[in-house]
Amino acid sequence: MGALLSIPLVGVGGSLLTSAITGLTFCCASTAASSLFKSCNCQSSIATRIAFALIFTLDAVLAWISLNGLIVKKIEDWSGGYLRMDCSADRDRCYGVLAVHRITFALSLFHCILGLLLIGVNDTRNKRAAIQNGWWGPKVLLWLSLIGLTFLIPNGFFIIWANYFALILSFVFILLGLVLLIDFAHTWSETCLDKWETTQAPFWKYTLIGSTLGMYVAVLVMTGILYGYFTGSGCGLNITFITLNLFGIIVLTALCVSPAVQEANPRSGLAQSSIVAAYTTYLISSAVMNHDDAHCNPITRGRSIGPAKPMTVALGALFTFLAIAYSTSRAATQSKALVGARKAKANRNAPPSGYGPLATTDPEAASGGTDAITSQPARKDDLKIQALRAAVEAGSLPASALEDSDDEDDDDYGDGGLSSGDNDDEKNGTRYSYAFFHFIFAIAACYVAMLLTDWRIVKVGGPSADPSEDGAPVVWIGRSPTAMWMRVVSSWLCSVLYAWSLIAPVLMPERFGSD
């Protein structure tokens, strides 16, 4: 879609008309988006994250559609051969892989630009907060324009990008996901237990038991499939990966219910272990399916490993896109799990204007006898604010009077209605780091590219022997042992991190003990 918008850049006729139609379309889209979020009775931070998740999902769908190479071939024809990819060998897959990396690279660049512009924004009273929470029409136009511009970049850049940068950034995203997974495993179990203890409703008990059993059943089924189709004579590496993963699951399961761990953390149990087991099994499955040994990989040989209907594949792909969109939004807001609870708490309690509390030498105020003014006025140091504070301290007015005054002040600093809306929940501090939010989305786009291309690498060979190709270089798509080992190592790291979360309260109860 974005590539279609770039066609007028290389064409001659109809560019002004196309530009006018495009501008009118995005003007209407911007108005519609603003009306939608204003009519939605939800907080601005949530609406913003939903909007970026939708953009992320749409980009993934566009990349998935481009796998067949049809869009790229049409662009090549419409541009008169100017936008051409030299894919002498296996043209269809080469088109698809490079097109996927172009579309996802545009999304990564889009979020990098926004992240750099939003560094240091701590509340919506900052003028730059409008970049995050508003201007949806220009942002969507920028995103689609970047997609179109990527088709003007030579193939050599994206071959290097796909083989190195996208691969490494995908690994970084997996590592961040591991930290969040461990945190989610504990949070899920504790949430179900809290609901069960407070409400005594059997629903939460059966939910916890059912999800745990379901995870373990899925692990056993997937392990059986791996042993049945990806092992055999001469497949020692696959057997080692699968067996080590199964052994690690058994060890973690026994460890989470051991007396020492239960004494240090009574809420530790099979629920967390089942989630970790399912994820590590998924990583190992993905790794062995990417093994470049055709003898040990039926997918490489083209052999079917089970019934696969187009509808099932489509639903599975859609679920993957939505799951990744949710995980990126979740990751960008989990500052506790990624940067530490102490730093997150300090950021939440920091004054929005950057001023700290003033020192006081009044012994009565220091002892707590009378509330003293401990913060410097953010914008207006006038008699009105001083009178309101004095009235609140004397008990003549409720504390909400100061908040109402702040709301009136915010109207003078509203950025297109973003900061002055009733649903603005970030006037006194952002709910998440804007810059880190976009960093997560940028590396997640690289992960989507590797996921859609099955972690394949792109290589350029010698000149083609086909006379019709005029000696064009041969570009072929293959499987990378590096990508396989990255997922294997990620699976092992996940097991180690979860084991440490179980052992740490036992070894250092004063630091990691559950209070």
UniProtKB/TrEMBL annotation:
The chain crosses the membrane at residues 6-29, 50-72, 99-119, 140-161, 167-185, 206-230, 236-257, 269-288, 308-326, 434-453, 489-508. Residues 341-378, 397-424 are annotated as: Disordered. It is found in: Membrane. It comes from Ceraceosorus bombacis. Keywords: Membrane, Transmembrane, Transmembrane helix. The keyword Isomerase does not apply. Belongs to the TDE1 family. Its main location: membrane. One of its GO terms (cellular component) is membrane. It is a multi-pass membrane protein. This is Endosomal membrane emp70. InterPro entries: TDE1/TMS. Residues 403-414 have a biased composition (Acidic residues).
